[in-house]
Amino acid sequence: MDARVGLLSERVLSRYEARNLRRELEERLSEASRLAFRVAYGVLRQREDAEDVAQEALARACERYGSLRDKDRFPAWLVRTTWRLALDHCRGRRRRERRELEALHAPTLEDAEAAAAANEFRRRLLTAIDALPEKLRIVLVLAGIEGHGMREIAALLALPEGTVKSRLHLARRRLLEWLR
Amino acid sequence: MSCARYAADLIEIALGRAATGEVGAHLEECAACRAEVARLVGLQSRIDEDLGALLREEPSPAFLARARQRLDEWRPERWLRRLLPVAAALAVVALGVRMLDRPNTPTPEPAPRPARVEPPAPVEAKGDVASASPREPRRVPRPAVPPAEPEVLVPKEQAELLQRLVKAMADAPMPVTSGAGGPVRLEVGRIDVPALQLGPLTVESSELKALRMENGEGAS
Known about the structure:
The complex is a heterodimer of chains A (180) and B (220). In chain A, 83% of the residues lie in helices and 0% in strands. Chain A has 180 residues and is mainly α. Chain A folds into two domains: 1-104, Rna Polymerase Sigma Factor, Chain: A (Orthogonal Bundle); 110-180, Arc Repressor Mutant, subunit A (Orthogonal Bundle). The relative contact order of chain A is 0.09. Residues 1-8 of chain A have low confidence and may be disordered. With 220 residues, chain B is an all-alpha fold. Chain B is 49% helix and 3% strand. In chain B, strands 1-2 form a two-stranded antiparallel sheet. In chain B, helix 1 (7-14) crosses helix 3. The longest helix of chain B is centred in the N-terminal third of the chain and has 24 residues, at 31-54. The chains are: A mainly alpha (180), B mainly alpha (220). Chains A and B meet through helix 1, helix 2, helix 5, helix 6 and helix 8 of A and helix 1, helix 3 and helix 4 of B.
């Protein structure tokens, strides 16, 4: 009889925990999904691909959410997962070619000459960003996402603030050297 | 020519480092280097602007809807369900190992069987049963004490075949082929198989109705 009561209590408890986890996830979902998308977009620069990758990352993050000891580490875990998935996705040569082609033909200015120049600059910039080592690139992308200061990036990447600052500086310096 | 050695310093200054010492003195004198610093500052702004524009993209509403749908499908105990096939596979393996181990273990002596209880003979329809509603199927009362031997309910024409099969199984060892490798012979010792007990078929009225439906006779 005691065992049955114990089993029932355990069941009730696990349901209760599941409901709480679900509510927590729901609260985080809007912000987390936007972050996942932007990180993926920062690597892939193609909306559909970025959305697919972000969805996959979110699915994995949701599956693991219950086993995360520190739930505040969820965004960091999501960013790392998204980043890895996006890089994997990016490795297909055909996708890269299509992406560059789209970036090249996206009209941004009225003046065709200026648009061509802007496109050329953007193409060079994206090529330069792609050539950065991963640890510099992820810092640069996260810094480019609105609202991310050194402290937030450090928390997302589980790195000291000083390391983030020096990596960002190094990334910017390399871009200036290549694009000057 | 002397400006080239300050190239790296100019980038640092464009990124915010203070122009001090030798580089600072050079910048005060060299208009070209000051212009280069201004150009690099402009370039850095453009990089930040382009990168910021790129990363200001918003996901489509469909994306958020899909994310929400995934959350609806989310179950925290999913990993437990993933373990179920593994547990089932382990159980099958354990069962297989146990079956292969069987020939090595001595066959235990058959336990003494309890005294056989013959199933009661079908009860003849009495007048009070016949006086019941004509639509009501005849009910055969179940025996109060269940028979010690299980009843085997088979059609009459198959009863004899079944008897012969059981006898053959009892007389001869049964070869068994393992799925993994070569044939394995499992020596099944002689089994004392009693004569089959063919008992009466008792069908409840509700079951009878279902059976008729199955046979396509309609519910009448």
